[in-house]
Design brief:
With 116 residues, this protein is of the alpha+beta class. It contains four helices and seven strands, in the order E-H-E-E-E-H-H-E-E-E-H. The strands form two sheets. It has a four-stranded antiparallel β-sheet with strand order 2-3-1-5. It has a three-stranded antiparallel β-sheet with strand order 4-7-6.
Length: 116
């Protein structure tokens, strides 16, 4: 009998699931050239997984789509889920594997309060 064990070791990865449609395919294509990003095309979805941080630059995506504007609403329309800490800015979406790496964007510091 195989024993079940949970592994709580951080993976150091973050990712999103995109719709497998024309826009999702273009976004995945743009992201496929990024360092430490892996694209997995599945029948009904596209997985975009990365090490550390993934940066979805809206202007870069708009250029690839041949449109003037691509924004948060457009991104949310094709994204069904994500893992990691997501930070949405005016010109991009950042997804961090480690919440501490997103601290400067989220407005919290990493100092211990109350001391131990």
């Amino acid at each position: 009998m195989t024993e079940f064990r949970a592994d709580h070791t951080p993976s150091g990865q973050a990712g999103v699931t995109l719709m497998n449609n024309q826009v999702g395919s273009v976004v995945a294509h743009v992201m496929s050239d990024k360092k430490d990003v892996t694209i997995r095309n599945l029948p009904s979805m596209i997985r975009v997984d990365g090490i550390g941080k993934i940066d979805f630059d809206f202007q870069e995506i708009a250029d690839a789509l041949g449109v003037n504007d691509f924004g948060q609403d457009d991104f949310e329309e094709i994204m069904s889920t994500h893992y990691g800490r997501m930070v949405v800015l005016d010109d991009r979406v950042l997804v961090f594997a480690n919440p501490e790496d997103a601290a400067e964007y989220l407005g919290f510091d990493l100092e211990v309060v109350g001391g131990v």
